[in-house]
Amino acid sequence: MExxxxxxxxxxxxMSWEADDVLSIVLGSDDRADLPPFSCGAHIDxxxxxxxxxxxxxxxxxxxxxxxxxxxxxERESRGGSTYVHSVLRPGMLVSATGPRNNxxxxxxxxxxxxxxxxxxxxxxxxxxxxxRQSKNWALLYGGRRRASMAFLDELxxxxxxxxxxxxxECGLLDLKAAIDPLPTHAAVYCCGPEPLIAAVEATCSxxxxxEPHVERFKARAQPIGCDRDEHNEPFELVLSKSGKRxxxxxDKTIIEVLEDAGIYVPTSCEEGFCGTCETEVVSGTxxxxxxxxxxxxxxxxxxxxxxxxxxKTPVLELRI
Length: 321
Ligand code: FES
What we know:
- Residues 5-107 form the FAD-binding FR-type domain.
- Its cofactor is FAD.
- InterPro entries: 2Fe-2S_ferredoxin-like_sf (IPR036010), 2Fe-2S_ferredoxin-type (IPR001041), 2Fe2S_fd_BS (IPR006058), Beta-grasp_dom_sf (IPR012675), FAD-bd_FR_type (IPR017927), FNR_nucleotide-bd (IPR039261), MRET (IPR050415), OxRdtase_FAD/NAD-bd (IPR001433).
- There is one protein chain.
- The protein is α/β, with parallel strands linked by helices.
- Helix content is 18%, strand content 32%.
- It folds into three domains: 7-101, Elongation Factor Tu (Ef-tu), domain 3, CATH 2.40.30; 111-216, Nucleotide-binding domain of ferredoxin-NADP reductase (FNR) module (Rossmann fold); 236-319, Ubiquitin-like (UB roll) (Roll), CATH 3.10.20.30.
- Residues 268-271, 273-278, 291, 293, 306, 308 line the site of FE2/S2 (inorganic) cluster.
């Protein structure tokens, strides 16, 4: 994982079309200084406005220290982030970003199968460049709706037959079983893309008795494990350690909602427990984690929690707010 997130003021240096509805954005500091280092699979939180924070994978080469590149798909059902990037953001503008953070790191393996769907290609790009540099055995299955909607095809063409491009309107869906079944057990499987693709890769690996794939989600699972507003939620007391203030979190509200009602600002983005933006340090009490961001080990040590979905297992929970 990268070190603690810092906020950077970044200038939009260039923007270019990578495919239909996909813009790449090159960001750098005004003094052309090195930006914080990142590893393959990392993302930044782009603060487009104080109330509009979105995560984007870094798709540039980590060795390029003075620039970060992200690519943004214009989502038809945008919650604001992609529309802002496509219609407001322009070269020369300043934005802020925190990070990089990495919850999709490239593990060391002898062989890799990467599976990308649509804009899910972004974190995979630096990964394939890295494993190619290491002369590892690898392949990439890259699916998309149409060829014209698939970003970075030119860049990927340098890898020849290691990259299998599968536009759905020409070839149908990716044949996951045919790709995963012949892999040796030590091969690492990576997937990023829409939820149905990730769920299908997870199901195929499970069916074939393989280790779980490494995945990164842009949205919560179809069956969210987040805060369901049912009557089984218990109310609890929340103590804000910086001020000593106490608030009650009722059964039908999240911590974030109560804090907002009290005029206390905490950065949020997905509000579904998968992006990590609202991660908050736990001072005392036992959190009831309901997120998809923390690892099992991080959940077990209870040092932090996602307060957009998490609740408390103890009657009182104290957070570093
Ligand atoms: Fe995304 Fe809480 S806002 S995890």
